[in-house]
Amino acid sequence: MKDENKTEVTPTPTPPPKKHNKFVQYFINLGHRIKGWFVDKWTAIKDFFGSIKTYKQRKLEAELVTNDGPQLTRGEKFRRGLKSQSGWLFVAPAILLMAVFTFYPIIAAFINSFKQGYSGMTGKFNGWGFDNFVRVFRGDTGTGGASFVQCLFNTLILTFISVPLSTLLALLISVALNSIKRIQKAYQTILFLPYLTNALAMGAVFATFFKIIGTASYTETYGIVNIVLGVFGIAPIDWVGLTSPHWEIGSLSIPWAKYVVTTIYEVWSGLPFKILILFSAMQSINKQYYDAAKVDGASRSTILWKITTPMIMPQISYLLVTGIMGGMKQYSAVVGIFGATMGQDYDMGTMVGYLYNYISLGQTGYAFAGSLILFIIIMIITWINNKVTKKHTTYR
Amino acid sequence: MRISIQHLTKIFPSRTKGGDAVHAVEDMNIEIPSGKLVGLLGPSGCGKSTTLFMLSGLESPTSGKIIFDDQDVTTLAAEKRGIGLVFQNYALYPHMTVEQNIRFPLDNMRIKKEEGNARALDAARLVQIEDLMARKPNELSGGQQQRVAIARALVKMPNVLLLDEPLSNLDARLRLQTREEIKRIQRTTGITTVFVTHDQEEAMSICDIMVVMKLGVVQQIGEPQSIYDDPNNLFVANFLGTPPINIFKGRIEGGKVFIGGEAVGTTEHEDQEVYVGIRPEGFIYDGEGAFTLNVDHIEVMGRDKSVVATHESSTKPTVRCIIDSDVALPANATQLKFNIKPYKLFLFNAETEERLR
Question: Which of A331, B111, B231, B303 has the most Cβ atoms closer than 10 angstroms to its Cβ?
């Protein structure tokens, strides 16, 4: 059957091109070339937008494409090229900021720690070497500065007592919190309050709790702690002041009373976050495990140590790692309780306190060396920590 | 161990103020002889799991008594009842190996290590998982996890074994296999076993005694076959059997049972409106009969044929008749006439839906 609508199209004869002289022809050709360039780009742009397809279409095409690869338009090629690299575009601001504020300081600290007699003011130094490190370890860093060994000792003692202690306490409190039903939310809020309070302010309050006014010969006003101790017949102790009791081993001073105060502070201020993490981890444990344990005759302590604790081991491990990292960097709590000199001549100095001390003294070389040592110590501890806890958390 | 449940009731208070309390289980009375396999059967929300948890001691009843042998255990704590419980999702401790999981109840009973190991191995052998003792639960298939859960429940040699929907997390093939396994284990150990299921086929296939429940109320207790052959009410008749029973609206007139205009059977009951239930296997075809069905299509299953038909009085969209494959059916018939086996025909009161016996 013949389609009646279809009429035969006779090709219209193309008119012969008009002849121009060479000069005019040149500009005409130029015009054509310029127009062609724009047309070319315009098609590219049209391809580009035309090639934006839905995920479904794209997937369908990908399935149709054989080994020869897809026949891509220029716009599509450009778009894909851009897309494969576009990830960099998104992370660029972050990388830039990190380069300036993170990577450069780390590298600079690393390099500067090897500059002997480095002056932070002028940037001048005497030469390269390990002089800074040697002096830091020997304590040969001039008068008026903190002792590195003392600061390191303090930091390690405070960290390795307060972090496990507060994690354990947080675990027990979380269990208790998990087992009560009434006003659970209220308790949770109260326990979380210290997290919202400033460290220096809390430190000042702690100092007041433990304070003793006067000297050994004149002691009239005690802090609340000494008053409570007095009820049990214990003589007032100068917890935070100049006459605070301490032991001495060689050049090392062990101000145990101050350790007690700082540890209590650290434990108390570390609890809220740890409780929050552990409590929410416990809430997500399926209740049937407890039912099963109950039917199996497990006691409360068995349930805590054999069921609950292993199940929240990932969170506990996280808290230990971050807690120890934070503990190694503690500063504000000690300053809050003992003041800017961190006790008496830095006898409660911490590693970070040591760094600040030498920065403020203008001897930045020692601070750089100290920061590098601190960095290495934290790295080693974290590595060990990961090795140990990984063993217990690989069941998931 | 003999279990006696007397007037057991569980009422959950309403969560919202002024809402209705939920009567999960109401006035339940069951006597379970020692060493039997009992299935609690019913649709979801009928209180069967609640009953199981009350037996286990994890849930305390609102009123009523639970008696094991002669001891009243109603207020006894779960761990003192001497029960083994298998949870629906098994509740295996993920951080313990299979062996540690099975040993866990023994460790709590402070049983010596050698004896504990021996007993754990025995329990593992019983459920055939002795090769998997060193694995963690996440390295096991669903069926294997199920076995570990059963072994953990059996290892303390319980007086009563309780299983909460033991087969619901398994695939169809494994389900068949496991239900035979449960039956075998129950036979070997002789432990009184109660299990919960919503699958009537599952319950019928392995139970010694079946308890059919609906909305917290026990509908019927008995052997599976006797409940199937002699249902108490429309719900029980409807719930048991695959394919399900055919239900028609009918009436009794002068000692005859009518569906539409056709008399399909006789009865001694007074004239009244009734529901007529006919089991699919209750139809006889021999060329002529009293009951006419409009044939939709015929399914051939090999062993038998299934006539899928419609009837205006049917309460369901289709009527299903199962007949022997040797019976020749006329090809392309749009209507077939059947006779009804009288013992496969049940009459139910149209209002109370209770059986007219």
Answer: B231
CB B9 within 8 A of CB B63: yes
Which value does ipTM take for this structure? 0.82
**Does the beta-carbon distance from B79 to A396 stay under 8 Å?**
no
Kindly report the length of chain B.
Answer: 357
As a whole number of angstroms, the longest Cα–Cα distance in chain B is 76
Residue A293's closest chain B neighbor by CA?
Answer: B105
Q: Looking at the structure, do residues A85 and A161 belong to the same domain, yes or no?
A: no
Same domain, A192 and A81: no
Closest CB to A395: pick one of B79, B107, B138: B138
Phi, psi for residue B96 in degrees, rounded to 5 = -110, 150
Q: Is the distance from CB of A304 to CB of A175 less than 8 angstroms? A: yes
The strand pair at B272-278 and B262-266 is best described as: unpaired
Task: Determine the Cα–Cα distance for residues A310 and A289; give it in Å rounded to an integer.
Answer: 12
Which among B57, B87, B109 has CB closest to A292?
A: B87
Contacts of residue A167, defined as CB under 8 A and 6 or more positions apart, other chains included, come to A274, A316, A319, A320, A323
**CA–CA dist A235, A208 (Å, integer):** 18
Provide mean pLDDT across the span A20-42: 87
Domain count across chain A? 2
A61-71: pLDDT as tens digits = 666 665 555 56
**CATH 3.40.50.300 domain residues, chain B:** 3-238
Q: Do B64 and B222 touch, CB atoms closer than 8 A?
A: no
Confirm if A327 and A77 have CB atoms less than 8 A apart: no
Pairing outcome for strands B192-197 and B160-164: parallel
Of A291, A292, A311, the CB nearest to B95: A311
B293 within 8 A of B333, measured Cβ to Cβ = no
Higher pLDDT residue, B154 or A72?
B154
Question: Any chain A CB within 8 A of the CB of B50?
Answer: no
Min Cα distance A317 → chain B (Å) is 15
Are B104 and A296 within 8 A, CB to CB? yes
- Is A43 contained in some domain? yes
Domain match, A87 and A187 both: no
Asked whether B52 and B88 are in contact (CB, 8 A), the reply is: no
Tell whether A168 and A85 lie within a shared domain. no
Q: A286 vs chain B: nearest CA distance in angstroms?
A: 8
Strand pairing of B209-214 and B37-41? Answer: parallel
Residue of B nearest to A313 (CA): B95
- Packing angle, helices A364-390 and A104-112, rounded to 10: 120
Contact A298 B89 (CB under 8 A): no
On whether residue A185 sits in a domain, the answer given is: yes
Is A340 within a domain?
A: yes
Do A150 and A83 belong to one domain?
no
Tell me: do A192 and A285 sit in the same domain: yes
In this model, does residue A84 exceed pLDDT 80? no
Task: Tell me which of 3.40.30.10, 3.40.50.300, 3.90.1150.10, 3.40.50.12710 is the CATH number of domain B3-238.
Answer: 3.40.50.300
Q: How wide is the angle at C-alpha A366 spanned by C-alphas A362 and A372, nearest 5°?
A: 130
What residues have CB less than 8 Å from A319, skipping those under 6 apart?
A167, A170, A274, A277, A278
What does the alpha-carbon distance between residue A370 and residue A352 come to, in Å, rounded to a whole number?
Answer: 9
Which of A293, A298, A395 is closest, CB to CB, to B94?
A395
**Phi and psi of A90, rounded to 5°?**
-70, -35
Residue A239's domain comprises: 143-390
Rounded CA separation A288/B78 (Å): 14
Please report whether residue A241 resides in a domain.
yes
- A258 shares a domain with A158: yes
Among chain A residues, CA nearest to B80:
A297
The tens digit of pLDDT for each residue in B82-111 reads 888 998 888 899 889 999 999 999 988 888
